[in-house]
From TrEMBL:
Superkingdom of the source species: Bacteria
Pathway(s) where this gene product acts: Cofactor biosynthesis; ubiquinone biosynthesis
GO molecular function, one term: 3-demethoxyubiquinol 3-hydroxylase activity
Record family assignment: Belongs to the UbiH/COQ6 family.
InterPro entries listed in its UniProt record: FAD-bd, FAD/NAD-bd_sf, UbiH/COQ6, UbiH/COQ6_monooxygenase
Key words, A-Z: FAD, Flavoprotein, Monooxygenase, Oxidoreductase
Annotated gene: ubiF
Name of the protein: 2-octaprenyl-3-methyl-6-methoxy-1,4-benzoquinol hydroxylase
Entries under SUPFAM superfamilies matching the protein: FAD/NAD(P)-binding domain
Domain FAD-binding, first and last residues per copy: 3-317
Necessary cofactors: FAD
Biological process terms in GO annotation: ubiquinone biosynthetic process
Pfam families (UniProt xref): FAD_binding_3
Length: 403
């Protein structure tokens, strides 16, 4: 029997498995699809995350960052936000005493880096190519609960605690009856991978328009990623265009920064993603715990999604670390451990995640609205932010996880 069974070996689930293994717990990870091996000749994946300084620090401690570094990533040192050229705020890593603000890394490579580190963990078993068919919590008294998981091949996995790291449509959340509230945004986002003619500067930018944001994320080599927010009908029509036609639409819709200094580009890949906000009503029920997207999904406007998941990992590991010396099943299944999870994992993480969700919604409404009073306030805010360095510095530290 395992101490922890983690359903979902993605970025967040695999990171948690590493941390629990370092604490000498016995861990099972169920992951239907393991990331394919890295090939430097492959083009970039569409799904990219902005990894904050605090997330990198966690991945270093877990032993995963060294593998990610050996593959590919793009450090960025600047961040610019504007709606009109005269109302612009520029952030730099130098202003907060850091070498970089963060890193853009393909999601698959973050997951792969964690799994490479897991290969050295003898107390972790990975059930790959399998998915969960059935979840059952035994009820042999509050002090001795355990969770039984039946896989689609009929194999059984038993653990004291089941962690739902299985994404926005979490089986674990549904199986234990935890509700969630939220909505699907009226807009969607198109991710477009491009290859530029000239090397990419380490600066990411976002222009806000009444139709939605237009963003650029620098990637390794001459690659970059564009994010085009708009209503579903517009993006559906754009999806039907060939690359030459879509390039023309990009030139019309995106700011001149994209092709500054005569830098041209070609389209490599594209896809449209729905935008969803959801928040679980609780993160713990019985001996099941939710983490990452299983507990919360957020507007990806500021790239905070996976960083929030890594903050969940840190908070949960801080609780489990208190029980490392006495890691018997009896202790783990006690009310003391459950109470500690409730107080020091669920309560602070639900509060902080809800705050970030609301902040992103407010930010989105403020910067994607053309009503005259809101536009005036937005412009004043950007102008003031550009001039007042201490305020700008504090905003930036919060955004990159230094606060």
């Amino acid at each position: 029997m395992y101490d922890f069974c983690i359903n979902g070996g993605g970025m967040v689930g695999a990171a948690l498995a590493l941390g629990l293994a370092q604490q000498r717990f016995k861990v099972a990870v169920i992951e239907p699809t393991l990331p394919r091996e890295f090939n430097a000749e492959d083009g970039p994946d569409l799904r990219v995350s902005a990894i904050s300084a605090s997330s990198v620090s966690l991945l270093r401690k877990l032993g995963a960052w060294q593998y990610i570094e050996s593959m590919r990533y793009k450090a960025y040192t600047g961040l610019s936000v504007w709606d009109a050229p005269q109302h612009r705020t520029d952030f730099t890593s130098q202003s907060v005493g850091e070498k970089q603000l963060g890193y853009f890394v393909e999601n698959r490579l973050i997951q792969l880096g964690c799994h490479k580190a897991l290969e050295a963990c003898s107390q972790v078993d990975i059930y790959s190519g399998q998915s969960v068919k059935h979840i059952e919590q035994s009820d042999s008294g509050e002090e001795n609960k355990q969770v039984s998981v039946v896989l689609c091949n009929g194999e059984g996995v038993s653990a004291t605690w089941l962690i739902g790291a299985d994404g926005a449509h979490s089986q674990v959340r549904q199986a234990v009856g935890i509700g969630s509230s939220g909505w699907q945004y009226q807009q969607q986002a198109m991710g477009i991978t491009i290859l530029l003619d000239k090397p990419v500067k380490p600066i990411t930018w976002q222009q806000f328009t009444p139709q939605g944001p237009r963003a650029f994320l620098p990637m390794f080599g001459n690659y970059g990623s564009l994010v085009w927010y708009d209503n579903p009908d517009v993006l559906a029509n754009l999806s039907k265009l060939n690359h030459a036609q879509l390039s023309s639409e990009i030139m019309n819709a995106f700011p001149l920064e994209l092709t500054a200094d005569g830098n041209g580009f070609t389209i490599v890949d594209k896809a449209v993603f729905p935008l969803t906000r959801a928040h679980a009503s609780e993160y713990i029920r019985g001996n099941c715990v939710l983490i990452g997207d299983a507990a919360h999904t957020i507007n990806p406007l500021a790239g905070q999604g996976v960083n929030l998941g890594f903050k969940d990992v840190e908070a949960l590991l801080a609780v489990s670390a208190q029980y490392t010396a006495l890691s018997s099943h009896e202790l783990l299944s006690s009310n003391g451990f459950r109470a500690a999870l409730k107080a020091n994992y669920e309560a602070p993480r639900r509060r902080d995640n809800a705050l970030m969700m609301s902040a992103m919604d407010g930010f989105y409404t403020l910067f994607s609205n053309d009503l005259a009073p809101i536009k005036w306030f937005r412009n004043q805010l950007l102008s003031v932010a550009q001039r007042i360095e201490p305020a700008k510095r504090e905003v930036l530290k919060y955004a990159i996880g230094l606060r």
